[in-house]
Write a structure and sequence with these properties.
Order of helices and strands: EEEHEHEHEHHEEEHEHEHEHH
Number of domains: 1
Strand content: 25-35%
Distance between the termini: 18 Å
Radius of gyration: 16 Å
Largest sheet: 8 strands, parallel, barrel
CATH class: Alpha Beta
Helix content: 25-40%
Length: 253
């Protein structure tokens, strides 16, 4: 059985780590290089770095910062934000990224997933989906950092992306993001039990019990969180110890 993974996420804006609620009301959470180094030392399984305004500001991800972080960590490192070509990915991998995350650009040009998968291998291509549950009970895909709603269902886009070569899904519930009220169990489980690739649950992790729930009931392969780690509410060793006690298969610290 594969180990479940704990993944801290660094949302980057203007070179600083930030964290908001439901994708708004951002507040400063510290220096990304220092935080990345701390999480690697504490036993995080992977690190995700998202340049959250790269697409909106129509610029490329901060390569120098990626390079700096990569020199301070020894765990797999996924980078996303403003990626729209093979050249973008190549530059990030050369600067220390292990995997890349695509979102809006891939939705607008699905062939990009196939191109990247052929060039770098599907294990390198993480599809990030920002999704919101609407009044009709369906989960819809949102673009541009949650600013633009589409009429495409999350599950349909995820299936299409995996068929095109995405090797992993990073699923963020906008309804749950930053609330610390628990992960979106229903949509996480739907993707995790339908798709043949790993699903990372994101949005809503606030207690150690939430992680047990998303692994056991939500069937997630990994759980991503930000503020609880950034603001020292739960430490990674503490969380992993708790998961081990609950018989969750996890890599020990």
């Amino acid at each position: 059985m594969l180990c479940k993974r704990i993944i801290p996420c660094l949302d980057i804006k203007d070179g600083r780590t930030v964290k908001g609620t439901n994708f708004v009301d951002l507040r400063d959470a510290g220096d990304p290089v220092e935080l990345g180094a701390l999480y690697a030392k504490e036993g995080a399984d992977e690190l995700v770095f998202l340049d959250i305004t790269a697409t909106v500001e129509k610029r490329k991800t901060l390569r120098e910062l990626v390079n700096k972080i990569s020199h301070h960590i020894n765990i797999p490192f996924t980078v996303g934000g403003g990626i729209s070509s093979v050249e973008d990915v190549s530059a990030l991998l050369q600067n220390g990224a292990d995997k890349i995350s695509v979102n809006t650009a891939a939705f607008k040009n699905p062939a990009l997933i196939n191109e990247l998968s052929k060039e770098f291998g599907s294990q390198c291509v993480v599809l990030a989906i920002d999704t919101r549950k609407e009044d009709d009970g369906e989960w819809y895909v949102y673009l541009n950092g949650g600013r633009v709603k589409t009429d495409i269902r999350c599950i349909d886009w995820a299936k299409q992306a995996v068929d095109l070569g995405a090797g992993e899904i990073l699923l963020t519930s906008m309804n749950h993001d930053g609330t610390k009220a628990g992960f979106a169990i229903d949509i996480t489980r739907e993707l995790a039990t339908t798709l043949p690739v790993p699903v990372i649950a994101s949005g809503g992790g606030g207690t150690k019990e939430h992680f047990v729930e998303v692994f056991e009931t939500g069937k997630a392969d990994a759980a991503l969180a930000a503020s609880i780690f950034h603001f020292k509410e739960i430490s990674i060793p503490e969380l992993k110890g708790y998961l081990q006690e609950r018989k969750i298969h996890i890599r020990p610290v």
